[in-house]
Amino acid sequence: MRFRHFAALLGIGISLAACGSGPGASNARLDTEDQKASYGIGLNMGRNMQGAESRLDRAAFLRGLEDAMARAEPAVDEAEIQTALRAFGEAVMQEQEARRSAEAEKNLAEGDAYLAENGAKEGVTTTESGLQYEVLRQGNGPHPTATDRVSIHYKGTLIDGTEFDSSYGGQPAVFGVDGVIPGFAEALQLMPVGSQYRVVIPGDLGYGADGTGGDIGPNATLIFEIEMLEIVG
Fold first, then answer.
1. In the prediction, which pLDDT does 169 show?
2. Active-site residue identified among 207, 216, 223, 226
3. Which residue, 33, 225, 9, 3, is CA-closest to 135?
4. Residue 207 falls in the annotated catalytic set
5. Which residue of 5, 6, 60, 79 has the fewest C-beta atoms within 10 A of its own C-beta?
6. Max mean pLDDT range (49-58, 68-77, 83-92, 191-200)
7. CA-to-CA distance for 66 and 75, rounded, in angstroms?
8. pLDDT beyond 50 at 11
9. Which has more pLDDT, 85 or 53?
10. pLDDT computed for residue 54 by the predictor
11. What 8-state DSSP symbol labels residue 74?
12. In a 10 Å sphere around its CB, with 0-12 CB exposed, 13-18 middle and 19+ buried, how is residue 213 labelled?
């Protein structure tokens, strides 16, 4: 989890992410290899600190950073620092969990509304599991089974239209039917070779309450357009 990386960075006092708020930081030169490397260190550290920035006192942070680099005597007793770090870390984790829980509830409600609306459309079929699909082109080849590997083209979007993945523009994707999320695996087995379907996957048949940590949040409903090209083994 990000928090573990963040806590480790605080513990050793080398994170550079907060430097971005210092005087002139946004105008720092990035010409030399050392400057670019320094910027990269700050960028990577800052990414690991996302979610904690609202609690971080940047002035105090920078003072600690400067004291460490100058090998100065710490201005706060080490025991006090460790106690404060533990409390800080717990508070950050609680805030992150609260935000994630709120996001999960929001995504679930919006997904349920979308599924209800989409399921009422002509040509949309809802399976027993809750998966929805619409046949855009029906092929006449064989259906893959759970143990098959298939070659497909696909595009995945969220219900707001955000595209999070696509095989178009490159080679078709090849993978085992049983190696993907449950809703996608179910959809593949419905599709004879030569077909193109539009599939809507509820959150519990996708990445569930965890999401992916990227564009796909907790309980996100996913939309895929899939072309079944061939069964490859």
1. 93
2. 207
3. 225
4. yes
5. 79
6. 191-200
7. 11
8. no
9. 85
10. 80
11. P
12. exposed
Catalytic residue among 112, 148, 165, 204: 165
Identify the active-site residue in 6, 114, 184, 224. 224
Report the 10 Å Cβ neighbour count for 13.
14
31: annotated active-site residue: no
Phi, psi (rounded to 5 degrees) for 64: -65, -40
Give SS3 for 55: coil
Q: Judge whether 224 counts as a catalytic residue.
A: yes
- Strand runs (DSSP E) across the chain, as ranges? 124-126, 132-137, 149-158, 163-166, 173-176, 196-201, 222-231
- Catalytic entry in 39, 41, 88, 181: 181
| Lowest-pLDDT range of 10-14, 69-73, 155-159, 176-180 | 10-14
Q: CA torsion sign, 53 to 55 to 61 to 64? A: negative
CATH fold of the domain at 111-231: Chitinase A; domain 3 (3.10.50)
pTM of the model: 0.72
**What is residue 155's three-state secondary structure?**
strand
Which long-range contacts (C-beta less than 8 Å, at least 24 apart) are formed by 205-213? 205/129, 205/130, 205/131, 205/181, 206/181, 206/182, 207/181, 209/104
Residues of the chain with CATH 3.10.50.40: 111-231
Q: What does the pLDDT read at residue 25?
A: 62
Selecting among 39, 164, 204, 215, the annotated active-site residue is 164
- pLDDT attached to residue 3: 43
Catalytic residue among 114, 154, 184, 197: 154
Does residue 50 carry a pLDDT above 80? no
Calculate ∠ Cα 138-139-145, nearest 5°: 110
165 is catalytic: yes
